[in-house]
Amino acid sequence: MFIIFSLDESAKLFAGSRRETHYDRMTSAKLLSILSAAVLFAANLPAQTPAHTFAIGTNDFLLDGQRFQIRCGEIHAARVPQEYWRHRLQMAKAMGLNTVCAYLFWNLHEPKPGEFNWSGQADAAEFCRIAQEEGLWVILRPGPYACAEWEMGGTPWWMLKTDGIKLRSRDPRYLDPAKNYLKEVGRVLGPQQITHGGNIIMVQVENEYGFFGKETQYVDELRKALVDAGFDVPLFQCNPPDVMRNGRLPDLFQAGNFGSDVEKNFAKVRKLQPTGPLICSEFYPGWFDTWGQPHHTGKPENYLPNLKRMLDMGASFSIYMAHGGTTFGLWSGCDRPFKPDTSSYDYDAPISEAGWATPKFFQTRELFSQYLLPAEKLPEPPAPNPVISFAPVTLNEIAPVFDNLPANPNIDEVPNAMEKYGQGYGCILYRTTIPAGAAATLEAGAIHDFGFVFVDGKRIGVLDRRATAAKIALPARAKEAQLDILVEPMGRINFGAEMLDPKGLIAPVKLDGAELKDWRIFNLPLDDKMVGGLKFAAGTTTAPAFWRGQFTLEKAGDTFLDLHHWGKGVVWVNGHCLARFWNIGPSQTAYAPGCWLRAGKNAIMILDYVGPEKPEIAGLEKPVLGELHPEKDFARAQRPAVKLNLTDNVTTIKGTFAPGADTQEIRFMNSAAGKYFCLESLNAFDGKPYAAVAELDLLDAGGNAISHNGWTVAYVDSEERAGEDGSAENAIDGQTANFWHTEWKDNSPDHPHRLILNLGKTQNISGFRYVPRQGQDSGRIKDYRVLIGDNLVSPK
Ligand code: GLA
Predict the structure, then answer these.
(1) Angle at CA 628, nearest 5°, toward 625 and 634?
(2) Is residue 208 within 6 Å of ligand 1 at its C-beta?
(3) pTM (predicted TM-score)
(4) Relative to the CA of 150, which ligand 1 atom is closest?
(5) Which of 84, 323, 356, 732 could in theory staple to 351 by disulfide, Cβ–Cβ 3.0 to 4.6 A?
């Protein structure tokens, strides 16, 4: 729709906006050109004059000058089929929210430098307009960095084509495109602000930057970029209170992110920001899942009481996530050091992945209904979308990957990351010739993330990023042979310095020490063009291959594709790339929304790198989100058995932590060098046998955190994996909301507990930062020892 305004109306539109103040200094020619731009700028406005005002007051948020308690919940448009946006927003409204919070993902909106996408799933303005129609305000979080378990935290992959680029900094190679993107966001979403008749009330600058850096000028540049882009509503920063001081602009409103300990966390915010309303900008009802780790559910005793506390205090909040949805396609991210996220982003949110009202939904609605304004009334939830199932069908058309390679491979002396070959997503094949010879060890500089290795077409094994070295044994060859390494990248890391996460096979690749040269590299981007051109034939084959088939429905409805029989790969339905899957779990199904299915025949296609047990698929009425199968893992079913050496050539430091949940930084008298770092708990504050750690960082000589890149858990004496996800990796994934916890459900082994990290190489360590488990006291360590050395652990 295109509305033509008279010049008068256009001028009125801008009344009260920042641009107005410049008018008096302009020539009339300039004024005319700005006004015609204003007509364009205003073309999508639902209302011509702002009907409401929003401000951050001394004690409260103010809507039309009145105290306004923001009851917000996060929903990402990209994670919900566009056809269902209204349904999910109606659900949010019926749950009692008055506002929704929405990240934008830069990489979805700018797939190629300077080429923007705002249509279909990426039509963020339409999402906001529907929210407005449903009576919801919007808090917009446009990035450029989002985190959110989204590929590279929303950063476009093409940034990685620039060697040495410094993400989230003032490096112009990052900042200029970031500003350009924000300008574009302003063009598209600026008209949707409350100041222009829309419903966007606040806009976030960066995201949890305090976790990453301290450069206030960088944050200021982004703030300026938002203002220049036309954002004239209040701006804000959000951070977990413990890192809020890093990179904080003193004149920018601060919001806190936390999932527990409401009073303590708000008290920390208050220290930095003595006045202004209190808002928890991310309050976690559950958590996201990563492959191979138990499914997460939130603790009921944590969720409702904390929400109630915030309501009673008059504080505002945003439930992250109110509705998580699905990270469709290849957009799922990865936690550090390397914990790829599942495609289901159910999050144990009150509105389930498929948009169902969960018990948490009704509890929240019930709670909120006690805090409504006199004129407020909660609408009834909309009817749930129909759910269907279908009986198993066999996918009997096959397109082997090796028979579907592009005609013109890249030629390179040594293998490089796929970004160098112009590819952002999908998978990529590296091929070379190896000489005849005895059995030998193949070793790569690095593998990001899984390299399926074939000699003359026969599968040998998998190079696995989770292993400490990218190594594999090759059999003897009577003659020259063709070596193929098909690399499957998972999502790029979305957190911390590790976000620089190029994908592929990285040189040098050596066979018993001799470097392999002269490679042919085949791009397999798995985009619509590539999968549309695959050559299928009936028959059987071994993986890696695409399997294709059809299922027939009487009527369309939501269903959950049962992937129990399949190995590891990607699934499409009717041309929609739905999800990644992996038989190790925890998710064993993929959500197929009914709006992408139809009555009659539906096409399904599966890329499986490992191969199915049988090529069958069915549609279920319920998802399977929490079923682990470590025995199906091709490489790392269990932690390898190791021998410990905690005495020879070991530096030992003893200490006592402070009680409470605050982050503690411990500096050693002298730095110690070692490839292994062991934290040993001697007892806990509550006298119980448990140890827990939310996060560990090691400090270099300058007191800065050392990158977790290449770190692995070398040994842990106990970790709870049945009652909750207490895996040791949680202590080094950069997230403070989850934690390593020793067993409590079936066993309760006593102290000392030991967590030993393999740092990949010898590091000089001047101290460490310890974040105790948040929310509950149980497991908080009192007396500890730290052991550092090069040989703490060896294979058994
Ligand atoms: C942080 C980030 C979010 C999200 C959550 C975990 O708080 O700000 O984007 O990644 O963690 O889900």
Answers:
(1) 125
(2) yes
(3) 0.85
(4) 10
(5) 323
